[in-house]
Prior knowledge:
By secondary structure, this protein is mainly β. The chain is 9% helix and 54% strand.
Amino acid sequence: xxxxxxxxxxxxxxxxxxxxxxxxxxxxxxxxxxxxxxxxxxxxxxxxxxxxxxxxxxxxxxxxxxxxxxxxxxxxxxxxxxxxxxxxxxxxxxxxxxxxxxxxxxxxxxxxxxxxxxxxxxxxxxxxxxxxxxxxxxxxxxxxxxxxxxxxxxxxxxxxxxxxxxxxxxxxxxxxxxxxxxxxxxxxxxxxxxxxxxxxxxxxx
Length: 205
């Protein structure tokens, strides 16, 4: 029920931004970055993992200081590394953040929720006394997260950003006597590029 309400809230935000776009200019572009991620409540202690991320973004101008931005990202989350840690989890997500950004000269601050859907899962636990331990406590397919970040516009087309993301709801319930509820944590560094688009006044259109 909580996840359903969260999904409705996120899509309401997207709908409001889409309605506003009929009166406000918009920008679109590509995003490429690198993230460090971990999974709290892990069955064993492991170092954060690092992976690439990429996707698209659409930004709507609300006024002189504020913009709304939604994205479609492909990224990995989880913990540990295959062959290097006793427990590793690789979670691949399609994620749709809905962000509100405040601009001050070339610096911007952003915050907002994100909805992720897990499309692939890889997990292995060495020395597991019960082979079905992990299977009895599966990870949820849907994830609701909160994002907080800061960035710098290098020029009209390029920007650098840093973003922290944390699950608002657990992605796995606690495994008895072994771990606590699990939450995804992610720190991402990204480079964005605005795609060129023709202006409405362009005589060639």
